[in-house]
Amino acid sequence: MDWEKLKTFIDKHKTYFFTGLACLMVVFVFEIKKSESNENINDFDDENTELLQSEKDNTDNLLDKTNSEKTKTEEIAAAKPKNVTCDISGAVNHQGVYTLKNGARLNELIAAAGGIKSNAQLKRVNRALILKDQDKIHIPYKGEKIKAEQVVESVSSTSSGSVSAENSDNKADQTTTSNKVNINTADVAQLQQLNGIGEKKAQQIIAYRQKNGQFKSIEELKQVSGIGEKTFVALKEQLEV
Hints:
Layout: H1 3-12, H2 14-79, E1 83-90, E2 96-101, H3 106-112, E3 136-139, E4 152-153, H4 162-166, E5 181-182, H5 188-191, H6 199-212, H7 229-235, E6 239-240
Parallel strand pairs: 1-3, 5-6
Antiparallel strand pairs: 1-2, 3-4
């Protein structure tokens, strides 16, 4: 190679040579910066993608949890009965079985049964009680000896069916499921549970029964000395033969 000629050429065209070299360097630097910028953009995009995916996962989890809780609430609501059916007896105008809306109170059941009778005893009756399905309610008569827990018998309560157990020492099985007293089998203590019947009248009833045989109807009770029409009317709903 003829170095002298090359040197002469470079000296002659050195302005163009250095200008071209400078341009190449500028292009090279620009490409390097562009590459770094693209890498930063890619890193930023990856971070954004990860963040968006994380937020989406959190949103999906929240929706799943909300839907699960909603489903559970709907299942509980569906399982809860919309109505309650209860049996009411005693000093009401129309004893029987009634169906009310869930959450109904005892006062509503009494109203459905035509209201209470004039000889009802409400001292131990909580008329604000919220009823449960299959509750059995007994509204006592005046003079009827009854405990507060005997007013309501609930199948959902551990005390359900305790009425007969609590009174087994004082009563035989002369009282029916409607709490009426059988005047053919009741003893003095049981007869005294009747409205207006004291010890003396109870003994007179038993004496009449021993002399004349069993009562053929509850109206025959008026034949007993000391029991007139007024007394009989007050207690006839509590009697049976």
